[in-house]
Please model this.
Amino acid sequence: MNLIVHLSVLAPVFFIAVSFLIPVLNHYKFEKIGLLSLIFAGWGTGSSLVLVYHVMTRGPIRYYFGSWEPPWGIEFMIGRFEVLMLLLVTLLYLLVIIYTRSFIQEEIKPKVVHWYYILLFLLEASLIGMIATNDLFNFFVFLEICAIGSVAIISVKDDRDSIEASIKYLFLNSIGSAFVLFAIGLIYMVTGHLNIPYAGESMVQAAALFPRTVNMSLVFMFLGLALKAALFPLHIWLPDAYTSAPHHSTVILAGLVGKAYIIGLVKILFKVYNIEILQSSNLLSLILFLSVLAIIIGSIFAIGQKKVKRMLAYSSVAQVGYIFLGVGLLTESGLTGGLLHIFNHALIKSLLFLAAGVIIYKTGIEDLEDFQGVGYRFPLTMIFFSLGALAMVGIPPLNGFMSKWFLAVGTLQADKPFLLGVILLSSFMNGIYYLPIIIRSFFSSGTEKVRYEWEFSRLDKKVWVPMMFIAAALIVSGIFPNIPLYFINKIVTELLVL
Amino acid sequence: MNLTNIMANFYYVAAIIFFLIGLYIMLTHPNLIKKVIGMNIIDSSIFLFFVSVGYIEGGKSPIIENPSPLTEFVNPLPSGLMLTGIVVSVSITAFALALIIRIYQEYGTINVEEIVKIRSEEE
Model:
């Protein structure tokens, strides 16, 4: 059993090793790199499942690297919430790699296909590391690997738009990393610890002695990670990056990369700083203000977009606002809703981008205007797209409803009914930009075709099986919200010290 | 915050000033190479900051030969961390420069304002 835990916890090391193995294999003319990548990704998913079982039966895992105990050594802490996020990351990765293999050749030059897998695995290693680590500097190292990996999977497409988007993203990312590193320096200066719980313990005393330094570190940390997670006024890199990236990269960027930063921010805000510091610094009001702006302005921009990927990108800006809203409310349901929305939004946005990718790749249709009748030609894909769209709007049996419900209860618990109005208004606006696509593709009268042409024979199995899997997950986690909540509840009570 | 206080902590003041200079260059300069230079100035300012966190005036390097309670040692951890920081900074710089080469191949210029102009003419 112990050996299995070792193997599972060392997943980041495994993926980094794997990603450097690929160029070696390629050098010796190894043909089946796609298949091998699938096996590696499957291994990652398998090890997450082992971790889920282990955490559920035996409680959280604390893993000390090289047996150096904290506060000296680097520590991985995998509790229930982390394990859910690890499962999400590895499972989505497995599905995306299955999906990728069918039409990667069309989007990326054949010469660089194996490089693409290197980047994917480096990014996966960094995401797992960022979620699992319990050490501030280790978090920063994974943050930088993630920065390079996420920019590289955009620039791998190697055309004008993607190169320009990626250099913009890289510069803003490096500013964000610099802010985070500076904040870590300030935290280390006042607390003398890099391990998150130990820094949190010393922070109580430090906040009384050096209130200015502590506040400065808080602001730097928040700005750096909010820039990377694309909270509203700092979202300027996001639409270009998501639009110009290859379709499979967009799924990972939208579904996972932004989320990992938010998870890190939540952990640091509540574990390193404590609730008194957050309340006295007015940061929470700032978070609430920015998230309301993000929700409303993101939705307005999304309504104005003509291209499907750009619209989905602006919709992401609004959804990041939801997550931050849940964090800023500082109530039990609010934080539950925010964390649940990390999980739900990752699933919904991946499904939407996967389906949009199929439509763009198979028909070349990018403009929302041209979606007329697409539902007849690609009924299965458009059903998945519609499921995602309806979940985004928050129609009850789907999972988007549950996170919005918890957020709404959270606003009432915090006695801020205005924010409830914002949530309702934005659900309405979500409807304005998602429903016309469904109506246009399925019910528009101008189409001459009346017979559905199911695409099972035309579409590769590798494309629709991952989508079906995510769609099933949307419905299951919508009908049985207790499954994700089982993993989330505990960390909420821990973070809010209830 | 009097003057002696600032003089005693002038490493930190210098680090903050360099940080702001780098940030200003990154945000305002249209030339992409100068943006990369700004990025490196920010990173260096943080290295200065970290190393000065661990520094003690007159402190010795932490190699304990004859331990006596009076010797003060410099904290080696921040300097050690910055080795990683330098590696990270170098790799980001290399990647940025590679992207700039590609930008130059596409547009024939590395000036952001000119690139925006070329793009607006195309559309």
In short: The interface with chain B takes residues 137, 141, 144, 147-148, 151-152, 155, 158, 160, 163-164, 166-167, 170-171, 174-175, 177-178, 181-182, 185, 188-189 of chain A (CB under 8 Å). Residues 282-498 of chain A form one domain.
